[in-house]
Amino acid sequence: MSDQIPTEEALLDKQERELLTKPDCQSEKTRDELVSQLQDRFRRTLNDIKILYMTLTDDEIKQLFGESDGTQGAIRANGQHVWAFLYYGLQLTDDDINHRIASAIKQAEAANDRDAAVTLDIVTQPFMPPEQFMQTLEGENSDPVSAEMFDRLWYDDRFSKSDVVDIAAAVGERGLTTDDVATAREKAANFERIPSTVITNVEVASTSSTENEN
Q1: CB 22 within 8 A of CB 2
Q2: pLDDT confidence of residue 5
Q3: Fewer Cβ neighbours under 10 Å: the N or C end of the chain?
């Protein structure tokens, strides 16, 4: 995880990234001081993004999102983590998440002169404990295990490293070793939340009203 941290300054500078991702590094700031400073920066960043949405042309937005420069995959992956961060933050501050997401989708579709009807059905349940997870994998008629649960295995100390290797082999990912799992867990030790693997080449195809009637 930490070896993927960028060095360029943006919302955070290099020292601030290291403070958050490498707690053993020396820093002139404490985390409390950083978060206090970030409050204003974060709000200004969101305001700038709002301005980009309101003012950029479609061609400019395509250029910004890396349509032809080879960066589109990275932008899609990071974009998903940003959505997760906004969802998580608004949820922690007691916002109406379903309303917020549905309204945002309607707003974006309205920009394309389309009236959208959005229905969200977010159903959550706790992740399975290790014993139930193993039984689910071994059962033939059990409910499928989510991709997020598989990602969680790497960092969940309730599962031994050898269990993770066995589970990976059971789903076709061979060659994984307990050292690989140990390395992943060591890298993740400084993080509060580990982002899941992101598929970046998903394409959404819309159907015409004629096709829907057939």
Answers
A1: yes
A2: 57
A3: C
